[in-house]
Each structure stands twice: as C-alpha cells, then as structure tokens.
Amino acid sequence: MSQFNSISDLLHESGAQFRIFDMGRRISKISSGQFEKLEQGMIPYPLPYLHHAWLALMLWNSKDKKQNVVWFLKFPLDEQGFLVQAVRDDFLNRLMQNISQMLQKENLDQNNDALKDNPFSFTPDQEKMAMFHAQSATIIQQPASQFYTGTKAYFSGDLGWQNWSTLGYQGIADLAARLDEDNNNAYLLNAIPHLPAEPLRALCTCLEHVEPDHRIATALLRRLQEQLQTDPDETGNTNLVAALLRGLSNIHNEELKKATIQETLTSSYAAKAEVMAAIATRCNQSLQYPDLLSLYLEKLAVSEAGQNGFSRILADLMFIPVMRILILQAFRNPQRSEDLSAAIGVMFGASFENSTKN
Prior knowledge:
Layout: H1 7-13, E1 17-22, E2 28-30, H2 32-39, E3 52-60, E4 68-76, H3 85-104, H4 126-139, H5 148-155, H6 169-177, H7 184-191, H8 197-207, H9 214-227, H10 237-248, H11 254-265, H12 273-282, H13 290-301, H14 306-317, H15 321-331, H16 338-348, H17 350-355
Antiparallel strand pairs: 1-2, 1-3, 3-4
Helix pairs in contact: 4-6, 5-6, 6-8, 8-10, 9-10, 10-12, 11-13, 12-14, 13-16
C-alpha cells in the first residue's frame, strides 16, 4: 500500500470529496489549501483550543453520498501553535497499518474502523456532535433527522411554548443548520421572545456554530438584557446568560458583540465562572479590543473562577498568538488593580509581576 507524506496527500489520493472542519471553540471550515500550509508548518493553527488542534475530516463518495466517513482528530500543538510534525507522522503510520489490516481480512464489515485504538481520535460532546451531523447533512444534501418536523412545529408556536419536553436536541440543531430553508429564520424570530429557558439555551448552543443574521442577533440581545437583570444566584440563570453569549458569539456585527460583552461584564453576572469562560472560549475575537480586554481581566481576577480559573483561562487565550501579545500588554498597564496584579503574580511568579511594574 502506498505511503503518504501528509494527511492532505491521503485525502487528495482517496478519490473522495472531503471537507475539513475545526471542532475546537466552534465548528468552522478550514480550506484544503490552509490545511496543507498547516501540515507543512508554514502557518500556526489559527484556532487552537486547550493547546490542541481539534479537527473533523469528512469524506464522501460523490456518486453515492450515503457512503461517507468522518474522522475526529486531536493533535497537540507546539509552543508557537504549529502542528507537531512527528505527531502527524505517527498518526499516518498508525492509520496506514490499520487500513492494511482491514484490507487483509476476508470479510469486511461496517464495524471495521481505521481509527480504532488511535490515540489521536476523539469523540465530540453530544451537543457539538448533533450540530456537526446537522451541518454535514446539508453539505451532502441528506435529509434532516426525524426530529426536524416536530422542532419546526414547536418553534412556529403551534404547539404552545411550554410543550418543549419532547423536543430532540438533534431537531434544534437541524433547524439552526437550515436557517435559510423552510421559513426557519422567521420561526426563530417569532419564537425567541417567548422561549422558556431550556429550549432557548439549546438553541443558543446551536446558533454559535452558524452566523445568525442581525434580526436574530437583536432578538437574542433583548433576551440577554432581560436576563442580566435577574438574580445570578437563582438556579439556571447563569447557564442561560452563558448560553445567550454563545448564541451571539458568531454574529457579524463586531460593535454589537463588543457592547454586549461590556454590558455583561458590568453586570452582576461578571462574577460567574461559567459566564467568564463563555466569553473567553467563544468571544475571544472581541477581546482583541484593548479596553474590553482590560475590563475582562479585571473582572476575571475577582470572579468566582478563582486563581485556578484565572490561570487556566488565560493560559488557553495566550496560546492564540495575537491574544498573547495583547494580554501581556494589558498586564503592563500601570493602571491595573491590585487584585489583577496579585493574580498575575500567582500565575507567573512574583518576578514577572514585578517586571510589569517597570
């Protein structure tokens, strides 16, 4: 069997059509040209999450789209955010060995898995897997799941807003992935002001993977503003605020996003670890505004995330090259608070904290 020097070579030589996705902070496409540059070490991984590249490689037969396979792969990145070549080579060697063993078997069946026992494979969480299934079905022009029809009926308002308990999460994911079809965008605009917390939370965790238009963004923002006036210590309130931030995180209007995050950070919900994590993991591009980043760092330093949460969140953010530069600049701000200075000192050591005062 032919040996391949890269994953890109394998994909191109497979004869299948393919798409590559990042699966870290949200589901997003990676072009084949960009992926080749990543493999060659020409550019760092653009969307690192927890110091890794989280990938989905989707392959399908153009003549029979029911013949398709998805590989979920997790590769460590080096200190500069580049794909580790030795790890990629190890993955390819393991993959080719498994494929060779599969071909040597007399009876092949669907249980044969080329990634079996591969240390670089992973399984996305259920929410992200549902959204990936929904988006991949639209790509290969397959029908939505059996839950889609019932979900549309609920979001149209015909079933009553309290009758959501029989909804399947996959159906909500299907609807979010098909906003341009079946009047779904209008259904959401009608539903968002009325949705109970649970279906609204589920919807928002799907919308973070697509690009909601300005009308949906406005409807979500109104719900968030209402929620920010509630008691953060009441059960479920913090989860809903975090979810609404996630639902707004991929809209086009950067100014609206910035204002939304600023409003959240000046509310009582800024103390909540889950809210601070949602901003860092889903809204990190908005934190590239220095004034907003400074406000975020100040609030994070005194939040319920504690020192451990402060250190973990910033370690992840600083793995993104542009964020590392901006955060270090913010650390050197002479106007920073004593609380932030103390948190920096614990994270990096007193010598680093003292150096930022010079």
